[in-house]
Amino acid sequence: MIGGAVVVLVAALLIGAVTGPAGLTVRGVIVDLLDAIPGVHLDSGLSAQQHAILWQIRLPRVVLGALVGATLAIAGAAYQGVFRNPLADPFLLGVSSGAGLGATAAIVSGAALGTFGVPVAAFAGGVLAVAATYTLGRGVGGARSEVVIILAGVAVAAFANAAQTFLQQSHDETLRQVYSWLLGRLSTDGWTQVLVVLPYVVVSAAVIGLHRRVLDVMAVGDVEAASLGVHPARVRLTLVAAATLGTAAVVSVSGLIGFVGIVVPHAVRLVVGPGHRLLLPLSLILGAAFLVLADVVARTAMSPAELPIGVVTAAIGAPFFLLILRRGRQAS
């Protein structure tokens, strides 16, 4: 099962690398990649221009897309397991709203932090929003109930959205730039953004993956999990922190890309069931493939213009979201 998912991911990466007007071929890309291995010398047949496009534009973009999709998908699976809520996604606790507020603040201020002004502000906003959610949840309900934390997230998100709207209306000359970020994009400047988010993605995925068996235990409820030696509040805090760290990092460079954390884990769950031993790694791999292919659609659907990738994922995710609601209603 995992081997098949890896094949799908490799195919998606190749499609993402060759799609575009540069005339790259699957064979040329594969041979050029093999030629980069120390000690291997092969002639890919690519021109110097095609080689530069592949290594400085296409590969950074598809790798960034894979990292973003993988992180959003595994974070979504973790949130759904922690809160026992099939509609939970990485933006549940205000990550998206906080990141959007941070990015908007940086944009309207002229990105005073320089090139990384918007990503840094978005990352800080997402993390601070989740910290505020947990502080509010602890103050209201001792952070003992996942329901209290979710409600606190709704309140924090509402406040951040209101503040963001105020900034947008006060600086309407930046609306186009703000909306461009909010709708999501995978434009890259070489490998810089990939290297910036990679450590956060690795740490986040590792922590979530190490808790895959604990998530299965927590599925029976907090009381039963505690009787089996699991500390639900501590596990919830650890997993939410890990998922938030990864989500805030990738969102800071990609903008807000919705529905990946809902669509991919649910699609995987329909095939392999609710067990997190397979659900988490498959969500990671197929989430990466899903977003790379969504980016291909975004680049080609209105070529030479480019759709925001958030529009593509929403077009796929919204009907899937309604399907989940309908299945839940029929099950009840």
TrEMBL record:
It is found in: Cell membrane. Keywords: Cell membrane, Membrane, Transmembrane, Transmembrane helix, Transport. GO terms for cellular component: plasma membrane. CDD domains: TM_ABC_iron-siderophores_like. The keyword Transport applies. It is a multi-pass membrane protein. This is Iron ABC transporter permease. It comes from Rhodococcus spelaei.
